[in-house]
Amino acid sequence: MGRKKIAVAYSGGLDTSVMVKWLSEKYDADIITVTGILGKTKELEGLEEKAYKTGASKVIIADLQEKFIKDYAFKALKAGAIYEEVYPLATAIGRPLLAKLLVETALAEGAETVAHGCTGKGNDQVRFEVGVQSLAPELNIIAPLRTWEFNSRDEEIDYAVKNDIPIKVTKSSPYSIDENLWGVAVECGVLEDPTATPPDDAYQITVDPKLAKDKPETVSVEFEYGIPIKLNGQSYSPAELVSALNFAGGSHGIGRIDLIENRVVGIKSREIYEAPAAVILHKSHQELERLVLDRETFRFKQLVSDKVANLIYDGLWFTPLFDGLMAFVDSIQKNVTGEVVLEFYKGNLNILSRTSPFSLYDKDLATYSPQDTFDRKAAEGFLKIYGLPYKTLNIVKNKTYQEV
Ligand code: ARG
To answer: Which member of 11, 17, 24, 95 is catalytic?
Structure first.
């Protein structure tokens, strides 16, 4: 038997860097760092070298950008999954994929333990650990941030310096930022005060709508079976399409969200999000569904969307209920094909037009002009019967005790 192996979810930031060294000493283990790329971020520069210098015995880096958008973000998009009505769930959607990569690496490398750098009061520990438990129940999980001796960033920095762990000595941002292609999440610092308006430096990828371009921009998004495939008539891969929309929407100040949200661990937190592409795509996708879904399916889908959003937020991606609800979502996407044209202007997102070969909109039925084909006379009988339960109810209600 060789040395014990631990697969560590590694971002290259201070916490996970300190973790690599700390785990190898405390458990006398070989550390395999595992990094999934879900979007281009500054932390990725020189990551491999840094991981080895920090003491990793093996470094795994996987570019998962296309997979993330295609198999995770677009699934959530089809489902209409938006948490508490506003958050398109960027971080929450990324975690199951990172947990899967961590598990697959651990199994392939013969590690019986995995570790992550999530704190003890956040949602991400839930998503990682429920993900790992669902995918590989035999693995042990260690969460050093919940148990180790360091009480502050400064103590971690001291440890890093003492142990020659390369850390960037840049002016540390007051914010905690989590970024992937589906969106950016920013918390901490002044944002912890719910009465404080987010300062401009809190935003990473969008411009202030007030300072955005004066010229509106028109963009058409084409969907096939609920999946966006073209922008302005041009085909894109999933990750490229999202990148292009983040850039275009961000430059018009679209996709800023400021939310007091309910965390899984029971506390309320305040986070700001930037998700231009996710906001644009959810709005367009829903617009197409308005056109092609019959009324009862549309209404039921709203319930499913809310439930799927909660499951994703709560770390329950790899569960039978999630799969079952997604089967429903897929079954109703076959007509969600068509084009939505939108206008971006100073933080506003306006629908200019929508069209689909499966549109259920019938102008002859809807019109108030002489072309009207709707049978108004039929409405009379319909209403006699439709209102009957309430007519009956009120006749009884208006009776006095003596009459009964
Ligand atoms: N509140 C978001 C969620 O639970 C984001 C969490 C990570 N945020 C951060 N700023 N590091 O999905």
So the answer is: 95
